[in-house]
Design brief:
single chain
Length: 352
């Protein structure tokens, strides 16, 4: 069974543990994977919940719940401290109470979690790795779907010289992304624009490349949307997609629970649906690969690094309100990938 990332130890600690086990005469096979704390015991209810949640070892589930309870208690105490009466400064009295879905604190959390401006696990290097089959250069023009802040597009433009039109459905993120392009002096080479995926208005035969990283599971009416993407490509155009795909049927309640954590309506496909519809649009599929293992490593490493930094340096109180829901969303994705409900796929295809 695979260890969850919060249970993993560093290599150094593992080596020390192995040495201690050897010195104590205990073989690796005899050592249990998870151990109950002294004085604790597993109730029948805990065992049943662990099995329901897909855990082979109920001790692993119990230890995770202990960590979550301790963290929730810490958050409760922090909220009480932050809610204490504080005399407002004069400048604070003029602030607009209205905030959008992406205030600066939430953006700062993502900048800490992934590379600055890159709102996908794996950051700059993974984006460049994914783009290798495209052979991008300054003679090519690209369309990105689900660009978020436009960080991936700016990296590709800066490293490879390509021109990228970055489309983002969230108008607030698109505006913030365009501000970052302006600040980087890349407003012409990487414009970030808002668009409606339900009614895509794309120029015919204009782009050499269309790509999207992990965003299309939110798009309704994907048949028509993929047709619009095919229509915007030039002759010998290329398409590169990564996305969450279903590996089993989810009922309405499961989809609703997932959508609630994502705070968006979701419309996931299976990998076979992607292959079928790309084929119907005359795409030659060169790569259709399950990237779940790599994706999981990127997610876990990002959160492990962030939580380690919090332990060392403390938590910025301004981002605390956004940490918990974001962590719940990403850990739910981890759970669904690990329990076989989802896979993370990469598709690369060309069109004649």
């Amino acid at each position: 069974m695979k260890l969850k990332f919060w249970q993993r130890k560093s290599d150094a600690v593992d080596e020390m543990s192995e040495e201690d086990d050897m010195s104590a005469g205990v073989s690796e096979e005899e050592a249990p994977e998870f151990q109950m704390p002294p004085g604790h015991h597993l109730s029948l209810g805990t065992r049943l919940r662990a099995k329901w949640e897909g855990y082979d070892d109920p001790v692993e589930y119990y230890l995770l719940q202990l960590e979550i309870d301790a963290y929730a208690d810490w958050l409760r105490k922090m909220r009480l401290w932050l809610a204490r009466p504080v005399e407002p400064e004069l400048g604070e009295l003029d602030l607009d109470d209205e905030i959008g879905r992406w205030p600066p604190e939430r953006i700062r959390l993502y900048d800490k979690l992934f590379d600055h401006g890159i709102m996908i696990p794996g950051g700059h290097e993974y984006a460049l790795e994914l783009a290798k089959p495209l052979a991008l250069d300054e003679t090519l023009s690209c369309l990105e779907i689900g660009a978020r802040l436009g960080g991936v597009a700016r990296v590709l433009a800066d490293r490879l010289g390509v021109w990228v039109t970055a489309y983002e459905a969230d108008g607030e993120l698109a505006l913030l992304g365009m501000e970052r392009s302006v600040q980087a002096g890349a407003q012409k080479k990487v414009p970030v624009q808002t668009f409606d995926p339900a009614q895509p208005d794309l120029r015919k035969g204009y782009f050499n490349v269309v790509y999207s990283f992990g965003e299309l599971f939110k798009v309704p009416g994907k048949e028509a949307f993929l047709e619009a993407l095919a229509g915007t490509l030039r002759e010998h155009g290329q398409i590169l997609l990564t996305d969450y795909v279903l590996t089993r049927d989810l009922d309405e309640n499961e989809i609703a629970a997932w959508s609630k954590l994502e705070d968006e309506d979701l419309h996931p496909w299976t990998a076979q649906e992607y292959k079928t519809h790309l084929g119907q649009l005359k795409f030659d599929i060169r790569i259709a690969k399950d990237e779940s293992e790599t994706h999981l490593k990127h997610i876990k490493l990002s959160w492990m690094t962030l939580l380690s930094d919090i332990q060392k340096s403390g938590l910025d109180p301004d981002i605390m309100d956004y940490l918990v829901p974001e962590m719940e969303m990403w850990m739910n994705r981890v759970k669904m990938l690990e329990n076989g409900s989802l896979a993370f796929y990469r598709f690369y295809a060309t069109i004649n």
